[in-house]
Design goal:
The protein is α/β, with parallel strands linked by helices and about 475 residues long. The protein is about 60% helix and about 10% strand.
Amino acid sequence: MILYRTLRQLARIALGWYYADVEIEGLERMPSSGSVLLVANHPNALVDAMAVAVAVPRRVLLTAKATLFERPMLAALLRTVGVVPLRRTRDEHGTGNSAPAATVRNADAFRMVTSALAADGVVLVFPEGISHDAPSLAPLKTGAARMALMAHDAGVHAVRIVAVGLIYEAKEQPRSRLLVRIGDALDLDVWLATSGGDASALTAEIDQRLRRVTLNFGSEPRARRAARLGRTLAAATAEVSPLDRPRSLAPEAEFAHRVDRATEALAAAPPSVVRQADEFIDDAEAFERRLDARGVALSELRVSPRVRHGAWFLLRELSLLALAFPVALLDRLAHDAPVRLARTITRRSLITDPSRDQPAMRTIVLAAAALLVWYLVLGIAIDRWLGPGAALLVLAVLVLSASSELALRDRLTRAWRRARTFLVLRADPAFRSSAVAEADRLLERARRLERALLSEGPLPPEPRSVA
């Protein structure tokens, strides 16, 4: 348990180093006790397991493809943590073995999962079976459903199945954002009593629940368009957010989902509505270009132009910079070389494997290994020079300072964007008024289009201007 907690904390640090924000939505839906089978989408290799383990406060029994255990060092670590290997049919090809039925192939794994659930544990399964770059869920395998049903048949009652959606802003991009969505729990006993379904029916139910907490687009172009327009609408409706963390990804994901539903409905819409939708998209993009040309961020458009607010902002940010700069400088001096080495190796490895689900995992793993070696070298050198006490103290300071430069750099970027917007809006009140009015008109047009296409309730209302 201590090892798991230690590795979970290291995973939290690693995710915080690579991603600017890891946001957890719906944690209150996670059962605090009892047996739970977590089913998650799988867009980002081992990073997905790290994200779920960090998001869920209870200990999670992880499952992973058996091919990972073919690497001795990684296999030793996975077994120490208690990861359960699952062998897929595709893993059997090329081994000279015929592909036996999944229940036979993974008999030991299924028994371990049943034992964990019987002990009121939490088990994580990726029912897609593969990590991939597609903009939608891959067809689900029946393994997760069969695990749940096997546990039920073995006398494990009140198993809850919880869908976990992993939504990455740009999974391969450092300092992008990650949203972990936790869905409503499905009580397996209740479901069986009302549906009497088998593994196929339960898999279909899991698929529906996963789609509620994930984003699923018909194609990459549709995904990009929905994300872009969702980001614009979220920025136009958002209140001015605190600078201590990036803006939430959750509203952007919700807008992107609704934009894609509206896009799908366009196929059967009258020509006049299609024309209005095209004009709306063109006008929204043109509006952002005009704001960018003036140095104004749409997400900061409703910032207060009052002098006293600007003065307090300047005093606060300069004070923070003065306090944080020495720590960030230490972080840069101590960690820049091993991190750059990890990123260089990762970039070279992507030449032969350009999958977008590899950069984050490889960079995190390589950087962790490089930092451990670096800490060891520094610790030995300082120990010989100043003694073990000084070595422990220096290493503790280095660990505590890790990622401080990235956090400060992110904050400075957000602060500069807000300061630039403030100065423009302060210098030209008429432009501020017209820009806010145009943003409000775009939001109203979005509501009308959504009602016309989906006959649903309106988009979230725009907030009041904030100081």
